[in-house]
Amino acid sequence: MIDKRRDFFEKSIGNEFTDYYLSHRSRSLHQKLGRLLRTDQDFGGVIIVDARIKTWKKATFDKFTKLMQPYVINRTNLSDACANVKAFIKPEN
Fold first, then answer.
1. DSSP line for 18-36
2. With left for phi above 0 and alpha for psi between -120 and 50, is residue 69 left, alpha or beta?
3. Which phi and psi angles does 73 have, rounded to 5°?
4. Cβ 47 vs Cβ 85: under 8 Å
5. Segment holding 72, helix H or strand E
6. What digits encode the pLDDT tens for the residues 22-68?
């Protein structure tokens, strides 16, 4: 059954990963972020740690960042990500 679905996507739609799974995952992430950021005054930072992203081709990552708009996606190491989020959410004095 899975092979038939993959064949269908490849023939009818295109690349199964980028055209189905990536779109589905980005939509799911949008929904989760929408539950956290409900008003124009809400803000925050999210760190997603997934080793598989390191193997993504540039085109795949570019498509993901486009699908995630208006959110800003940065690919960086964990310590820099933590520092960036901390600086972003630090209240102004």
1. IIIIHHHHHHHHHHHHHHH
2. beta
3. -110, 125
4. yes
5. none
6. 888 899 999 998 888 888 888 888 898 988 888 888 888 999 999 99
pLDDT at position 40: 85
Signed CA dihedral, 69, 72, 76, 78: sign only: negative
User: CA-to-CA distance for 89 and 60, rounded, in angstroms?
Assistant: 29
Distance CA 74, CA 58 (A): 13
Extract the runs of DSSP E, i.e. beta strands, from the chain: none
State pTM to two decimals. Answer: 0.68
DSSP letter at 12 equals I
The C-alpha torsion from 63 through 7 and 25 to 72, rounded to 10°, is 0
Q: What count of residues does the chain have?
A: 93
